[in-house]
Amino acid sequence: MIIAGPCSAESEEQLLLTARALAESGKVDILRAGIWKPRTNPGSFEGVGEQGLAWMARAGRETGLPVTVEVANAKHLYTALSYGVDMVWLGARTTVSPFSVQEIADALRGTKIPVLLKNPMNPDIDLWSGAVERIARTVGYENVGLIHRGFSFYGKSRYRNAPMWHLAIEMRRRYPEMMMVCDPSHISGKREYLYEIGQKAADLSFDGLIIESHNCPAKALSDAAQQVTPEELIALLDKIRWRKGSTDSPEFVMALDRFRGEIDQIDAELFDLLARRMRVAEQIGRVKKDNDVAILQSGRWNSITERVIAQAKELQLSEEFLTTVLEAIHIESINRQNIIMNSEE
Ligand code: PEP
Ligand code: MN
Q1: Span from the CA of 102 to the centroid of ligand 1 (angstroms)
Q2: Could you give the CA distance from residue 223 to residue 191 in angstroms, rounded to a whole number?
Q3: Residue 211: how many CB atoms within 10 A of its CB?
Q4: How confident is the model over 105-148, as pLDDT tens digits?
Q5: How many angstroms separate the CA atoms of 85 and 210, rounded?
């Protein structure tokens, strides 16, 4: 499923030009536009409000595309419904607030309109699934979908929002039947990165994308750097390869079974080793306790880290990965020692 359209509806002309070009391509299923925009600073362009809904309705009628807008409170929802929108979504700044989500859930009572839930701003998966539960109570699980748009963080990085793909994967595990699309526009913040994120989403079996497209991105009143023209969007969509969920080909099934067997075996050995390592850490904890020595010996920890990192190249593992694993092992080891040190025996 491809949802596309401008970050914000800005004028009737802008919306219609964009919508027509998207519809003509035959590659877009739903038209999106923000009508009320949640902006970080007051005084930025905050959306055109209700008049934009009339433009959306016209764009939908003319192109035959269903239309969707963001709603952040009950009033937005009632107004959007009165203009016949086909679907609504809750933005990341709304999913983060249980009060707002509940208010919208209550206002949805009696409707069966599809609702897409963006992940909350912060990487709190329970807040995301809590929002699913609230909305599903009134519209039913079959009418709820998910949008992965990345998570905010402090500092500089390649992307505007950290993708943290594992959280999307965890939502997929919690709601295997639920449609989940990726929003490469808000993850990337920059049009140059749309393709790599879109392709990754396709590789991770997402059900589609929601991407911002504007007839003249340079003049966009919000999110200019991440929007692409309809032509650029179509070229991008042509480039992304969507792979099949699976195949019955016997060679594939046999090869996969063999490698999965190997992986299961290696995992068993790996976890057995980790358990052994933790038992040794506990013995160290006992020796330190008997001698009243502190748990953290930073010299020792530095030398372990240096030794392991030095092996990274040889092992063909990334430093980042090794560091993450090592830190997890170290923390668990400290926790175990801590329990021993502070036990009564
Ligand atoms: C948007 O889709 O234009 C938007 C405001 O996104 P988000 O809620 O993901 O920031
Ligand atoms: Mn936007």
Answers
A1: 19
A2: 10
A3: 28
A4: 999 999 999 999 999 999 999 999 999 999 999 999 999 999 99
A5: 17
Q: Which residues pair with 117 in a beta bridge?
A: 90, 146
pTM exceeds 0.90 for this model:
no
Ligand number nearest CA of 118 is 1
Q: 250-341, which class in CATH?
A: mainly alpha
Residue of 118, 152, 183 best suited for mutating to test ligand 1, as the one with most atoms within 8 Å of CB: 118
Top mutation candidate among 10, 31, 35, 70 for ligand 1, by most atoms within 8 Å of CB:
70
Mutate to test the pocket of ligand 1, among 117, 183, 210, 211 (most ligand atoms within 8 A of CB): 183
Residues contacting ligand 1 via CB (< 6 Å): 7, 34, 38, 70, 91-93, 118, 149, 186
DSSP letter assigned to residue 240: P
Q: What phi and psi, each to the nearest 5 degrees, are found at residue 304?
A: -65, -50
Average pLDDT over residues 225-242: 98
Tell how far the Cα of 34 is from the centroid of ligand 1, in angstroms. Answer: 8
CATH of 2-239, one of 3.20.20.70, 3.40.50.920, 3.30.1390.10, 3.40.50.300: 3.20.20.70
Q: Which ligand is nearest to the CA of 226?
A: 2
CA of 320 to the centre of ligand 2 (A): 31
Classify burial at 213, counting beta carbons within 10 Å of its beta carbon; exposed 0-12, middle 13-18, buried 19 or more: buried
Rounded distance, CA 117 to CA 1, Å?
Answer: 15
User: What is the band of 79 on the pLDDT scale with cuts at 50, 70, 90?
Assistant: very high
CA dihedral 191, 195, 196, 202 (to 10 degrees): 140
Q: Where are the domains of the chain?
A: 2-239, 250-341
